[in-house]
Amino acid sequence: MTENFILNTDAYKLTHWQEYPAGLSKLYSYCEARVGGRFDEIDFFGLQMIIHDHFLEPITTDMIDEAQAAAEKTFGTRKYFNRSVWEKVRDLGYFPMRIKALPEGMVVPAGTALYTIESTEPWFATTLNAMETILMHIWYPTTIATNELYIKRALHKFYVKTGELANLPFAVNDFGLRGVTSRQSAERGGAAHLLHFRGTDNMVANHAVEEIYGLSGWGLSVWATEHSVATSYGEGAGEYDYLKAQLDRSDENTTVSIVIDSFETLNFIDNVVGSEEIKQQIIQRPGRVVFRPDSGNPIETPIDVINHLERIFGHTVNDKGYKLLNSNVGVIQGDGMKRETIIELYETLTALGWSADNLITGSGGGLLQEGFDRDTERFAIKASYAELEDGTELNVQKKTPGKVSKAGRFKVVEDETGTILTVPITDARVDLLRTVYDNGQYYPEKFEDIIARSEKAL
Predict the structure, then answer these.
(1) Which of 7, 115, 320, 403 is the most buried (most CB within 10 A)?
(2) What does the alpha-carbon distance between residue 337 and residue 378 come to, in Å, rounded to a whole number?
(3) In the predicted model, what is the mean pLDDT of residues 298-305?
């Protein structure tokens, strides 16, 4: 289905051009994650993907015809569709609007204006907020990026205290392509994951980072089995053949991930991994072997596996005083992993004297889908300023208790203490909001720069 941008909105917004005050010649709106959401700070990310996907294609006559027909069917009349304004947009070849936004990857307090939009032609003012619906989709990649920032902050201390900080970018791996509602969700949420971690099996996210943000080969994965591979060898002797085949066929210098719960997890460790030939092959293998239990208690089971691996391979104590399994073996826990359980697992592991370097995690729906919606961070877009043809300036504001919106036009500035503030446009300090779209001109950023900003927030 070919995208028709005019229809990328709530139906009722197509009627608003007849509802605003007569003579409205400019409208200005802003987006924020309101105070009172799950997290106190917000890692702003993903607007570049939205602009790339939706704001760079010109409006065509076919789109206008299709949208007019759809509006007539929806409302039972053709009077509500503003054909003339969309014909003017078509003739311009771009949307007459300006978007200013915080630099992506910047971490700011909840309640900060994340971006602003304003009309640049008087005739487009009453249509500007039809853009709100598609621009509101920023809630998703920003919420995922924020959730992963809080995961990374929590894990950072475990790696500093017990292991090697260089391993932190691979502590959480994205298994979420199959666990989200759409390919686009996987792309945008998976790109948000790659802002903080490099391990991923989400190919569409890796592709988006390359195509939209210009960074190739950032997300990395490994040779990894699944249950269809393991069970196709059968139980008993087949389990030995299964593991032997993976060790023989993979590049011995690379990491391999072996699912181990197709039949009985600890039996596989004790009697297959622990068999003399397999044990010696693993010991001699330069590349790492990580074992993946995919069932059982998500905290207890991986630690049980580590304890059983210790009986086979032994351990050393690193220079920070924490135990590290010998022979470059470890565990990857993917079942039941989300922010809370990932942090709990590392906390439990290190409390038992094990280095964080023994473990990595993977997460699917818990990373990109479970428990996230627009209200997780209380996202809203509100009009805050307008002008009339006669020069009248209007500060626009919602004053519902608990949902009081901002009025006027804004800057986002940093004060002398480093605090980020949203202030009136008249403030003399440097505005952190940057122009990212201006009458068809698009100003993308590099993913490397976005990563660097998020890293500062650790």
Answers:
(1) 115
(2) 24
(3) 98
User: How many whole angstroms separate alpha carbon 410 and alpha carbon 393?
Assistant: 15
% of the chain with per-residue pLDDT over 70? 100
- Counted residue by residue, the chain has a size of 458
pLDDT tens digits, one per residue of 130-169 = 999 999 999 999 999 999 999 999 999 999 999 999 999 9
Helices 47-54 and 203-213 pack at an angle, to 10 degrees, of: 80
Contact 435, 100 (CB under 8 A): yes
d(CA 264, CA 75): 60
d(CA 31, CA 140): 13
Q: Could you count the other beta carbons within 10 Å of the beta carbon of residue 446?
A: 12
| Multiple choice CATH, 5-142+380-456, 3.10.580.10, 1.10.1280.10, 3.90.1170.30, 3.20.140.10 | 3.20.140.10
pLDDT tens track for 430-444: 999 999 999 999 999
Pick from 55, 35, 4: nearest CA to 111: 35
Q: Which two structure tokens, joined as six digits, stand for 286?
A: 């330069």
The superfamily in CATH containing domain 144-368 is: Aldolase class I (3.20.20.70)
Q: How far apart are CA 194 and CA 207, in angstroms?
A: 11
DSSP designation for 171 = S
Domain locations along the chain: 5-142+380-456, 144-368
SS3 121: coil
Q: Which two tokens stand for residue 361?
A: 């995690």
With contact defined as beta carbons under 8 Å apart, do 265 and 300 qualify?
no
Residue 1 binned pLDDT confidence (cut-offs 50, 70, 90): low
Q: How far is CA 114 from CA 42, 139, 141, 422, in A?
A: 9, 11, 13, 9
Helix (H), strand (E) at residue 116: strand 113-119
Residue from 361, 360, 448 nearest 163 by CA: 360
Cα–Cα distance for residue pair 190/450, rounded to 1 Å: 15
